[in-house]
Amino acid sequence: MAAPVDLELKKAFSVLQMKMIDTQQKVKLADLQIEQLNRVQKHAKLTHTEIASLPDNTRLYEGVGRMFILQSKEDINNQLMDKQKTADEKIKELEQKKVYLERSVKEAEDNIREMLLSRRAQ
Predict the structure, then answer these.
(1) What are the φ and ψ backbone dihedral angles of 66, each rounded to 5 degrees?
(2) Residue 72 gets which letter from DSSP?
(3) What pLDDT digit, counting tens, does each position of 18-70 carry?
């Protein structure tokens, strides 16, 4: 009877290991995306503060590909604020995703612990 139990535990451990590796990769990817979005957000914020200090009649150009387009100060400010908002929303989504992934791994570990305890009690 020990052989089927060992096979079942071995299978459960291998599933947990695969899940842990997959989750760790996803968490690392989420961390990298959060860092990149933080940089985008910071860049937009710094650009917005610099533009805000300029007089209203200053000619501002937006880089598009290999050319520059004349834009109003208000349009550029709106674009920068939109960048900040979308980056903030994506960061919140990624953090929620990270929490979910970590919770699912913890639940899988708890299930295996319960399995081990029930096998030892038999």
Answers:
(1) -105, 15
(2) -
(3) 888 888 899 999 999 999 999 999 999 999 999 999 998 889 999 999 999 99
